[in-house]
Amino acid sequence: MFQKSRSRSTTWYGVVAACLLLGVLHAAQAATLYFPSPETADDERGNYSLNLLRLVLKKAGSRDTVERNPLNMLQNRSVLELAMGNGKLDVIAGVTTKEREEKLLPIRIPITKGLVGWRLLLIKAGQRERLRDVRTLHDLLPFRVAQGHDWPDTVILRDNGLLVSTVAHYNSLFTMLNLDRLDYVPRSLPEIWAELDHYRGLDIDPYLVLHYRSADYFFVNRKNTKLAETIRRGLEIAMEDGTFDKLFYEHYGKLIKDANLEKRHVIELVNPLLPVETPVTRKELWFSLDDLKRIK
């Protein structure tokens, strides 16, 4: 009788210990992933990317959480820190280039459906007619333009023949516009409306939109293939069940509608930085003017 009781007790403690061990191992699998902070306090450009990252991790069944690294970093610094794998960053979101894909591991699903390649022109208030007669890229050449010094867009615009000034600090673009040192600053649909709200004395040119094929991806360290696969799987699931589009149009539907793209003259540019691996044949991954009918 004593041996049976002892055996049952041992079995019970074994079960409890196994459960506790499984719980510890399961908890150990969850990690805190670090994502870049905004470049400035009022920079809202990364909010959608952060929300999407949290969504796709959940869809993939991951228990990982995401927090912003409190350090403010410019794009090149974020790429460097992630490539070094020093734990300061685990995931970044950004426009893809051949160089970035050599340094980092991309998850090749455009997180804003290529909206980063649809560029409205931010201008100084009171100058809405300045670009009215522009119809071609050649017509646009005399006008002054600027971008961030480490932005891929700077290379793209220059390669298309535009004379592009650069700034080291994001806020300087808007200061230069207000001081009449620029004629326009191309900004993507995901960015331009928030900037218009935050910076006084600016407006949006009503006549033009620049377009080039461009994709912004989630990137991880090249050695972190497990995290890359988790994010890829979560993105595919979210696209399949509709939650990707739901989040996308919640964030950008009104902004796209307000852009009146169908009424603008489109100037097509070539993107020399676009890697050949970009999934251009998967039409469901890209926003097009045909998608305007989906926006109420």
The secondary structure category is alpha/beta
**What is the third-level CATH name, the topology of the largest domain?**
D-Maltodextrin-Binding Protein, domain 2
Number of domains: 2
Helix and strand sequence: HEHEHEHEEHEHEHEHEEEHHE
Mean pLDDT: 89
State the CATH class of the largest domain. Alpha Beta
Task: Write up what this structure looks like.
The protein folds into 2 domains: 31-113 and 215-254 and 274-294, Periplasmic binding protein-like II (D-Maltodextrin-Binding Protein, domain 2, 3-Layer(aba) Sandwich); 116-211, Periplasmic binding protein-like II (D-Maltodextrin-Binding Protein, domain 2, 3-Layer(aba) Sandwich), CATH 3.40.190.10. It is of the alpha/beta class. Helix 2 (47-59) crosses helix 9 (225-241) and helix 2 packs antiparallel against helix 10 (243-258). The protein is globular. Mean pLDDT is 89; it is low at 24-28. 40% of the residues lie in helices and 17% in strands. The chain has helices spanning 2-29, 47-59, 75-84, 98-103, 137-140, 152-159, 172-178, 189-198, 225-241, 243-258, and strands at 32-35, 65-68, 92-95, 105-107, 118-124, 145-148, 164-167, 185-188, 202-204, 208-211, 216-220, 265-268.
